[in-house]
Amino acid sequence: MSKGKLAKFADMARYENVFQYPYSVVENVPFEMKGHWRDMYFHNDNPIVLELGCGKGEYTVELARLYPDVNFIGVDIKGARMWTGATQALNDGLKNVAFLRTNIEIIDRFFGPDEVQEIWLTFSDPQMKNVRKRLTSTYFMERYRRFLVDGGIVHVKTDSNFLFTYTTYMTERNAFPVLFSTTDLYHAEGLDVDTMRILSIQTYYESQWIERGLNIKYMKFRLPSAGDMAEPDVEIPVDDYRSYKRTRRSGVDMRK
């Protein structure tokens, strides 16, 4: 029988690879590892990669397996989901994995300048009604800049036509260098070695979407640390399908 939420939260409270700072308490609790993840937790000088909105942590854990010389941190507010990846990482003895349970809106409170090399956004909620909540909006890009190295890479993997189109316009509007982009990842040609390696990682829901015939979109671009940013002034068609176990959303609010 699977564990209930209370049992999972009890586990998380004692897990050495989990740090819990939800929005409701972070104001009163200083985060001493800000700027010191390498020396205080990982005990190495390897690059740090974040997965924001990591869900069950499947991607975080599998990336850590593929790249043992890279430190990975999964971030999400849903502790009961995160328990799966955190437990797997502990059971498998993966020392290059950590999990941070917090609100992504305050992610810059946990990392110092130039502390992070890359960010993964895997199947983020497209937030079609609220631009400020999209993880590729200027609202979040400004926060990423505070801890991402200059020209650090942002990966976006999604089943959402809306989010992929919006992010494409974002990169064009702000002249972010796009390293690779495809609307059909599993049938794309010209993939680099690293992209080919990550094709072996599929979350449970991703496999369901692929079975239903939905194309998986992927892009990676560099985020410069300087320069003004602006939202794309375009109307984007909303997704006209229902993703796996996801209710349909309609309407677009482009207000900042």
Note the beta-strand portion.
15-25%
Q: Which secondary-structure class do the elements indicate?
A: alpha/beta
Radius of gyration, in angstroms, nearest whole number: 18 Å
Q: What are the secondary-structure elements, in order, as H or E?
A: HEHHEHEHEEHEHEHHE
Give the overall average pLDDT.
Answer: 89
CATH class: Alpha Beta
Pathway: tRNA modification; N(7)-methylguanine-tRNA biosynthesis
Family: Belongs to the class I-like SAM-binding methyltransferase superfamily. TrmB family.
Pfam family, one: Methyltransf_4
Binding site for S-adenosyl-L-methionine: 51, 76, 103, 125
Topology:
Elements: H1 5-14, E1 18-20, H2 23-26, H3 37-42, E2 48-52, H4 58-66, E3 71-76, H5 79-91, E4 97-101, E5 116-122, H6 138-145, E6 148-158, H7 161-173, E7 178-182, H8 193-198, H9 204-211, E8 217-223
Parallel strand pairs: 1-4, 2-3, 2-5, 3-4, 5-6
Antiparallel strand pairs: 6-8, 7-8
Helix pairs in contact: 1-5
